[in-house]
Write a structure and sequence with these properties.
Two copies of one chain form a homodimer.
Chain A (H helix, E strand, L loop, with lengths): L16 H34 L2 H8 L3 H7 L3 H19 L9 H18 L1 H12 L7 H23 L8 H17 L1 H8 L6 H18 L6
Helix pairs in contact in A: 1-2, 1-4, 1-6, 2-3, 5-6, 5-8, 5-10, 8-10
Chain A binds a DNA duplex through helix 1 and helix 3.
Chain lengths: 226, 226
DNA sequence: AATAAGGTTGACCAATTGGTCAGTCTTATG
DNA sequence: CATAAGACTGACCAATTGGTCAACCTTATT
């Protein structure tokens, strides 16, 4: 039940306080990580309301009191979890780069996004749940961050269009379609498993989805003639 | 429909007194409708766990006890709500018809699905939440119903392919893409509003989405040359 | 050893909530 | 009117849960 850890430091001479602080900082980081990971899992299954701090704490291997020592309230740990997911969400958009040809960028974005959704299904689902639930826990700062990065990427797409590299298209709606198409397999895994009569999706399913999505988007945007 | 009326064994006296008159039946139908409508709204915002029977009852204009008189448990009203949504979900699939040319069918399906998502955003969101949350409240019967209808429609698509009317494509994944693409605006309205800096999406947004999705799917599937 | 300071937790509390129940109200029928 | 059956509800209860707190533990420093 304790996060104990394999302590025992080889060189525990305890001369400098600084070393201890480092150790404490490390422990804190580890516990924080465990709690955030557990939070991702529990929140992504039960949603904000359905999740209990007790279950998160248990899954992280600490007491509920410890969770509340690290994160004052349930909202606080939830926001910390969401913040982290936003980083992931933003990082995938790196592929939308003005210096890259649109057909390559979109191909890579689709691939990366689907790969993320396969590797990180819980953050993917949690993000979806938050949006579907009205983004009630998204503060102004997070909203602004989302808006800014999306605006930037829309400008990239408009740039491609202006440069004649791509047919005119509403960049916002293109992004909406890309997001939906690349997340659905993780987001609606239950639905896919129901339809495919599988107990779990495998790598091949995601690869099939990637190929179909890539094909449809590239040809659909008239970008496949390269 | 399946409003389980717990009839009581009133007929023990041998004669089924038909106390239930038309007015009562009407009232029951009206109240049931109000409760299901309220349930849709509250569940779609708060999720199963976050919703309270008290809030649903209040929104329906009856007491919590009345809700529990109509639906024994929270699960029961939730399932009734989901059942209804499944009807809607299934009805849209009517467009996928073997007697219709694929480019027409897909165009109509996209249009109908997006229109549904605009007119019925709450059922749309609730369905999405249920799937994202792992379809934990979907009983075997509902699962089978989903499987059967989807299997049927996949056969239609395979039929189009066999008839040379359409390029080979994995029909399941095509449906996944269609679902995701046509629901995202309602499902992720909060995200879209964040990105578009709007307080609410309007008809034009859905029309833009429809046009782009139609264009990309038809051309992406090489169906636009008909 | 003594001190200090942060880390950890069991026990506990107040609020919420799903569900129950006894009793009241309404209305068709005899 | 009297009856009976369903419709309806306020009051209530047991369980859950977010959050608190005093006590205890661990460890570096003096």
């Amino acid at each position: 039940m304790k996060l104990k850890t394999e302590k025992t430091g080889a060189g525990v001479d305890g001369r400098q306080r600084k070393r201890v602080d480092q150790k404490q900082v490390l422990m804190r980081a580890q516990n924080t990580e465990k709690l955030l990971k557990a939070g991702e899992r529990v929140f992504s299954i039960r949603g904000f309301d359905g999740a209990t701090t007790a279950e998160i704490a248990k899954k992280a291997g600490v007491s509920k009191s410890t969770l509340h020592y690290y994160f004052g309230t349930k909202e606080e740990i939830y926001e910390a979890v969401m913040n982290r997911i936003l980083d992931l969400w933003v990082s995938a958009l790196e592929e939308i780069d003005a210096d890259v040809e649109p057909h390559v960028a979109i191909q890579n974005y689709v691939a990366r996004k689907i790969e993320y959704s396969r590797i990180y299904p819980e953050p993917t689902r949690l993000w979806a749940m938050e949006m579907t639930g009205g983004a009630r826990h998204f503060q102004a700062e997070l909203r602004q961050r989302v808006f800014d990065i999306v605006e930037e990427k829309c400008n990239v797409i408009d740039g491609w269009i202006a440069a004649g590299k791509m047919e005119p298209v509403n960049p916002h709606h293109l992004l909406f379609l890309l997001w939906a198409s690349t997340q659905t397999l993780a987001e609606d895994a239950a639905q896919a498993e129901m339809v495919l009569k599988k107990s779990a999706l495998d790598k091949g399913d995601f690869e099939d989805a990637r190929q179909l999505a890539t094909r449809i988007f590239l040809r659909g945007l008239n970008l496949n003639n390269t």
